[in-house]
Amino acid sequence: MAETVRLRIKRQLSPDSSPFWEEFEVPMIHGMNVIACLVEIQKNPVTKDGKKTTPVAWECSCLEEVCGACTMIINGRVRQACSALVKDLEQPIVLEPMTKFPVVRDLVVDRQKMFDNLIKVKAWVPIDGTHHMGPGPKIPEPERAIHYELSKCMTCGCCLEVCPQFNEKSDFMGAQIISQVRLFNFHPTGASLKEDRLHALMGKGGVHECGNAQNCVEVCPKEIPLTHSIGEVGRQVTLQALKDWFMK
Amino acid sequence: MTEIAVDRSFFNRRLHSFLGIFPIGLFILEHFFTNSFAVHGATVYNSKIEFFKELPYLLAIETIFIFLPLLFHGIYGLYIVYTGEPNNLQYGYYRNWMYLIQRVTGVILLFFIGWHVYVTRISALLYGTEVSYQYMAKMFTNPVVFWWMVIGVVSAAFHFANGIWSFCIVWGITVGPKAQKRMGWITLGLFVVLAFVGIRALLAFHI
Ligand code: HEM
Ligand code: SF4
Ligand code: SF4
Ligand code: FES
């Protein structure tokens, strides 16, 4: 038999059913990533022991680590399946769904919470209106460079998966949202909603619930300076609290 | 514009953070320093603590500046510990270990300070126990008590030093990663110095 790839996958057929493990062995293809292994299983959904089973469900879209859809736990570490190359991984490759979001099926999870939080903190630049507003203000290059880094967030949720403070016992919204607040508060037009955003982050699950374990910055695949954002937003919130306390 | 209600958790969390330094942290510094008089022997030590015992409004000062802040910081700290789910075995990064040790030392301190305040302060109030160099030295002849003191002192030194590090991020004093790293070294140094001072004071009772 030609060279093969062994996989151990944690499966779950519906949101409320209990998880179970299945092992697979698929043919090795030169340069293959974890997604390609899952495609092979889909083509021939048979376990390692020759038992027929249902194909393993997963999500992917961009296949170049910019959409975040394929995020899962691979050999114990949360990352994107599309950029996880089989040749770099120890076998059997262990695949698990993320643990901090509700499982939809197998490796598919529901990240809706993150999008709800983006709405909660008004993570946008308000330009809606009935009249033409003209060109936006110019942003100096050094600032633009930082904006660009922050804007690379793909809402994958890695930073939340590894955060000890992001769990069912706490309302903490996590590093991703704090970093997006920094991005939109930075923007000259976006800054008109700055107070609303800071108040949202002083509310339930805000920046104060961070415990400074700094795991988030270690795993962010887009290398976003998350702990810098936490420090910066911490400072903005401190100043906002002083303003609320003494000037209102 | 809609107003989103600022949650109580924000106030509580920032109060917890603030009290960790003012006054609890400052008190720890004073406490380590004052007890270091033991290095100069029983007579010096006893005369120094006599000064503290005779402070006017002592009970009010202790209650407002030490007891109540500690009670709040300790109880809310336990709640913070409860809301965290450590994952150090899976993600063994340096700062993640510091996060865990901060919580472990916090819980140790809750037990330690409770016991320590009982034997050195409450028993004096209740039964008129004469707290002095000799009283401490006698207690320390029991190795269990002595090592329990060492654990308490080292835990307090770590918790306070590492607490300064996170305090500086929480309030936005060390904003960037370089500043945070520099503060990491400074507070690590403070931990070593405080642990040294604390243990040396303990050893001065243990002859
Ligand atoms: C009585 C038992 C104690 C418990 C249960 C406790 C618990 C905690 C916890 C869980 C944290 C982490 C908070 C966070 O990262 O969000 C913390 C932070 C801190 N603690 Fe304590 N602690 C105790 C005693 C003390 C003492 C005696 C001191 C002073 C030496 C102290 C000073 C600090 C400081 C300065 C911080 C940092 C505040 C921050 O990060 O915002 N704690 N404590
Ligand atoms: S610093 Fe730690 S506690 Fe804070 S968001 Fe990052 S991982 Fe979570
Ligand atoms: S900040 Fe990084 S880890 Fe977190 S969601 Fe965005 S891209 Fe993913
Ligand atoms: S498919 Fe988009 S990040 Fe992997």
Task: Please give a structural write-up.
The complex is a heterodimer of chains A (248) and B (207). Chain A has 248 residues and is an alpha+beta fold. Chain A has helices at 34-43, 112-120, 141-151, 158-161, 175-186, 194-201, 215-219, 226-246; strands at residues 4-11, 20-27, 71-74, 77-80, 93-96, 103-105, 108-109. Chain A has 2 domains: 4-109, Roll (Ubiquitin-like (UB roll)), CATH 3.10.20.30; 112-247, Fumarate Reductase Iron-sulfur Protein, Chain B, domain 2 (Orthogonal Bundle). Chain A is 32% helix and 13% strand. Chain A starts with a strand and ends with a helix. Chain B has one domain: Fumarate reductase/succinate dehydrogenase, transmembrane subunit (3 helical TM bundles of succinate and fumarate reductases). Helix content of chain B is 79%, strand content 0%. Chain B contains 8 helices and no strands. Chain B has helices spanning 8-21, 24-35, 42-53, 58-83, 94-127, 133-140, 143-170, 177-205. In chain B, α1 packs across α4 (58-83), α4 (58-83) runs antiparallel to α5 (94-127) and α5 (94-127) packs across α7. The radius of gyration of chain B is 19 Å and the shape is globular. The N and C termini of chain B lie far apart (69 Å). The model of chain B has no long low-confidence stretch (mean pLDDT 95). The interface between A and B is large, with 46 and 38 residues. Bound molecules: protoporphyrin IX containing FE (HEM), iron/sulfur cluster (2 copies) and FE2/S2 (inorganic) cluster. FE2/S2 (inorganic) cluster (FES) binds next to loops of chain A.
Gyration radius of chain A, rounded: 21 Å
Q: Largest beta sheet of chain A, briefly? A: 5 strands, mixed
Give the names of the bound compounds.
protoporphyrin IX containing FE, iron/sulfur cluster, FE2/S2 (inorganic) cluster
What structural class is derived from the secondary structure elements of chain A?
Answer: alpha+beta
Could you name the CATH homologous superfamily of the largest domain in chain A?
Alpha-helical ferredoxin
H-E string of chain A: EEHEEEEEHHHHHHH
